[in-house]
Amino acid sequence: MSSKNARADSLSLLLFTLRSGKLMAINLLKVSEIIPMPSLTRLPESHPHVKGVATLRGNSLSVIDLSRAIGEQPLLDPNGGCLIVTDISRSKQGLHVQAVSKIVHCLTTDIRPPPYGAGLKSFITGVTRVDDKLVQVLDIEKVIHGITPAPIVAVPEQLDENDAQLLATAKILVVDDSQVALQQSVLTLRNLGLHCHTARSAREAIDLLLELQGTPEQINVLVSDIEMSEMDGYALTRTLRETPDYHDLYVLLHTSLDSKMNSEKARAAGANAVLTKFSSPELTQCLIRAARVVNGLDD
């Protein structure tokens, strides 16, 4: 197995702009709809990056001032532009943007990691080119986390002794190109008293798997994001399943998208399970299940 042999999957990106006119993108699967800028109810105690709350078909929707959240200049018309309504990590929110450009289709191998020192680096997970123009892929998880961090529930002390012993046998590698999402998973593992290895890309994960193969730290549980640049979680899983040494490695795909929508594709790729971010208790239960499989207690 080589980290250079990436298996490509198709990806649809929604392109949009803020005041600067630079092209940015978000995975189309994370977009629920696009609507004109609605009237907002201002909440005096809300986060400064939240413009207000809109009512969408009877439901409240928090509207994020994306320009302000990522350190860009505010839009010239604070009431103009449109909203990209996203549905990720078990919640909906509206992103206020200048304009939506178009939808483009590409391969995951077309998305490259952000170059060192790139503008908005802390809020992008990758870059690509469309019509010879640079496009920055937004790290929407980091934007949302900066406003409403996902709660990390401390593991209760009365964790079943058998489960605790099982978890201790898990040698875990967590793979995620979003630093915020990676930290959330690592913190959950620390609350469980577990050490884990981490990687920021599928290529880095493969290199680490090869490095640890045959050592006391050999990985037996992989927890991987799906939406990653260059090589996504599906491609990573297929590559591992085609390699004899990793054919039986337990793979949990951890995604900000709806896990129901991704479960069929995850199974087809060879993943053992798929989970929507971010629920610390549910991740804990998934890891206990993984440890049972690794120890031959479950199929």
From TrEMBL:
UniProt xrefs under Gene3D superfamilies: 3.40.50.2300, CheA-289, Domain 4, SH3 Domains
- Give all 4-aspartylphosphate modified positions: 225
- Domain CheW-like positions: 10-149
Q: Which residues form the signal peptide?
A: none
Q: Which keywords does UniProt give here?
A: Phosphoprotein
Which InterPro entries does the UniProt record give?
A: Chemotax_regulator_CheV, CheW-like_dom_sf, CheW-lke_dom, CheY-like_superfamily, Sig_transdc_resp-reg_receiver
Q: Name one Pfam family in it.
A: Response_reg
- Give residue ranges for domain Response regulatory: 171-292
What's an example Gene Ontology biological process for this entry?
Answer: chemotaxis
Q: Which domain of life is it from?
A: Bacteria
Which SMART domains does the annotation name? CheW, REC
Q: What is this protein called?
A: Chemotaxis protein CheV
